[in-house]
Specification:
The structure is a homodimer of 339-residue chains. Chain A is of the alpha/beta class and 339 residues long. The first copy, chain A, has nine helices and 14 strands.
Chain lengths: 339, 339
């Protein structure tokens, strides 16, 4: 198969290359594409190297599958061109996710939605994937009525520049961390990527604000959860927070179900589900953390317990935002579409 | 007044000294006490220095106010002795908080509960204080029915050793942060204080687990909120998470009230309350972060918005866990008791 990757030199693009390799996706020819800025960059692939080409009008000729991971504007520009050239596009941006004609898919949850696609399939938001991998089995078990999520999102969600900004700020503060007990605001490293100091801080904003005070990232979590679960009126409350973690997004979730569910029953439903691993033994002090989830395919689920009411359940999940949250889910979709 | 501080050399004890100074508490004589291990440590106070003494049977003779910030076991041992000697004890540990004869007080919220104390007053858990400073005004406005909290707690909540562990781990990982994209679990720094790597990670556990999978820190948040607000049956769900932040605890909160409350009405009630500062303007990208709250007396409240249902409100608050979360609240109680 001829596979193109748009945004190949980015942190998700590189992970897509590694994922195709790891999963032995039948690639006959790989076409790594990016903006002209990244033209000529060498990337390791299949024991050799591939060289990034600037995306162009004829870049998608003969391509079977195009994995997209640029920004939404670039996706909007090039996805129709790739479809025209005969490729099926799996797009990791937010450009097409809420388009009623575009399936928004987590294969373990709603793989059937791929049927009848018109050339573009959307890959969900990384935090939505992490949360829903844990929530969907419980919805199937007992009917989801409400989902309340607070997130702990890593800096790699903003790409390589997000990682660099955190590391640079940590270096800048090195030796003076104790000053952060009562910091001088004028001496804090300013953030270009996160708009605030992200080292030794948490930032409760991702994306931009709408007039109601919700951020775009929070609204994505609401809308995408409804679409993926097929529950257009599901009550979802979300607070999205960036934390100084390199890789691995986490979510603290409270669910309301249509009936009380015992913790053991919930664990059983989760254990029977693919793509997740239960890490949840209070007696051995075991629970998910993002550093444990980084570099792994499975979403880790733990802290499963009864909430404040009989019909509420709580859990904490950590997933690799670059793998299941992005590259892995996209390649899984490509597998379902073509193999 | 003769003022004793037990646990004077700890991170909260030191903050208590600074707070007495800053607020010009009328100290005639200061008695800094600690375990024999810290005997002889010099601490700056009132332009000079004071020397830590080992706590002993006669250490509280003539003491008017004793501010306690040791562990619960030490508090249980020495608080009755201090009361016997005629002192009033403000205890920052969890030892007496749920004792029905001991007032558990945040002065801005339930200062009246101080009346009728029997010598011991308890200072609430630092995360409970941060959350309730934002929640209590909304409860007064419209009747609180439910509170769902996820926390982002700094390492200084575990004292100086917590701060040291984070800084040491960050140093150990320095230069290899990119490896955290797919970490080798055997090479991660193990944590003694947090039981896990805390650098570039978040740890969804504080305290120990009960058989239901709740942590002691989460149960404190439930029980203390009920006691302070005078709502013994309040539904509270809490998930407590440690984050790699030096100082400043944050909470993401969803409230259910007994009637729908518009965001502007909520802001008005918060604006009229003492001890908090609203930092909440989406248009100027303004919201609370823990690094902004560190070294400040006020709890910062923002991200105030309608939740997923008409009767739900959401907010994010950050407070200095060593100040309002501990030393400042204790000194405010001492002021109400004696001035």
């Amino acid at each position: 198969m001829k596979v193109a990757i748009l945004g190949a030199s980015g942190v998700v693009g590189r992970e897509m290359l590694r994922t195709l390799e790891r999963r032995s996706f039948p690639v006959d020819e790989l076409v790594p594409l990016a903006s002209p800025r990244s033209e000529g960059v060498s990337l390791p692939f299949a024991g050799g190297e591939v060289t990034v080409q600037a995306v162009s009008d004829d870049a998608f000729d003969g391509v079977d599958v195009a994995l997209f991971s640029p920004g939404a504007t670039v996706s909007r520009q090039w996805a129709p061109r790739a479809v025209e050239a005969g490729a099926v596009v799996v797009d990791n941006s937010s450009a097409f996710r809420m388009d009623p004609e575009v399936p928004l898919v987590i294969p373990e949850i709603n793989g059937d939605a791929l049927e009848g696609h018109r050339g573009i399939v959307a890959n969900p938001n990384c935090t939505a994937i992490t949360a829903l991998m844990a929530v969907a089995p419980l919805h199937r078990l007992a009917g989801l009525r409400r989902m309340i999520v607070s997130s702990y999102q890593s800096v790699s969600g903003m790409g390589l520049k997000g990682i660099d900004e955190l590391i640079e700020q940590v270096e800048k503060l090195s030796g003076n961390e104790q000053d952060l007990l009562a910091p001088d605001p004028t001496s804090l490293p300013a953030g270009e990527v996160f708009g605030r100091t992200i080292a030794y801080n948490v930032v409760p904003r991702a994306g931009s604000f709408d007039p109601d005070g919700w951020t775009t990232e929070e609204t994505k979590l609401v809308e995408e959860s409804r679409k993926i679960l097929g529950l257009p009126k599901l009550d979802v409350a979300a607070t999205v927070v960036r934390v100084p973690v390199i890789a691995g997004h986490s979510v603290s979730v409270l669910l309301e179900l249509s009936r009380p569910v015992a913790v053991d029953e919930a664990r059983g439903a989760l254990r029977a589900s693919k793509g997740i691993e239960i890490v949840d033994d209070p007696h051995s002090d075991s629970f998910p953390t993002p550093i444990d989830a980084a570099g792994r395919d499975e979403v880790l689920v733990g802290r499963i317990r009864q909430g404040d009411r009989p019909d509420s359940l709580m859990l904490f999940a950590s997933g690799d935002n670059l793998r299941k949250g992005a590259a892995l889910n996209a390649v899984q979709i490509a597998e379902r579409l073509t193999l």
